[in-house]
Amino acid sequence: LFYHMWGQDIGVLEVLSVDAETGVATNISRIEGDQGNEWHELLIEAPQTYRLSTVQLRGYVTPTAYYGDIALDDVWVRNGPCFEQTTTTPATTTTTGLQDSAVECDFEI
């Protein structure tokens, strides 16, 4: 997923896994405060479970909450490992990055 958290009143963005039967929430990721006026990518692998679970995204702001916004884009949930490490060899250089052969992961601003 991509997130944008900018402004002095930004609080917290949490990603949780919630057990559908018990309602118990497990925090998978937590990002706090102003992250600058830019988009950031967050790749998360949730803990493996054999129970029915949901993924929740929760955003919190300070009580005044006049100066700041949280935005999300390109949220993907899928079964299996998040992304595989791959190496691409161009004619003159070698670059290593996170890629998934089955998913197009580009993002345009």
Give the SSE map.
Layout: E1 2-6, E2 10-19, E3 25-32, E4 40-41, E5 53-61, E6 69-73, E7 84-88, E8 95-99
Overview of the molecule:
By secondary structure, the protein is mainly beta. Helices cover 0% and strands 45% of the residues. The protein has strands at 2-6, 10-19, 25-32, 40-41, 53-61, 69-73, 84-88, 95-99. The strands form three sheets. Strands 4-1-6 form a three-stranded antiparallel β-sheet, with no helix packed on it. It has a three-stranded antiparallel β-sheet with strand order 3-2-5, with no helix packed on it. It has a two-stranded antiparallel sheet with strand order 7-8. The two termini are 14 Å apart. Mean pLDDT is 76; it is low at 92-101.
Radius of gyration: 17 Å
Strand content: 35-45%
Order of secondary-structure elements: EEEEEEEE
The major pleated sheet works out as: 3 strands, antiparallel
The global form is globular
| Number of DSSP helical runs | 0
- Terminus-to-terminus distance: 14 Å
Number of β-strand runs: 8
What oligomeric state do the depicted chains represent? Answer: single chain
- Regions with little confidence, pLDDT below 50 for 5+ residues: 92-101
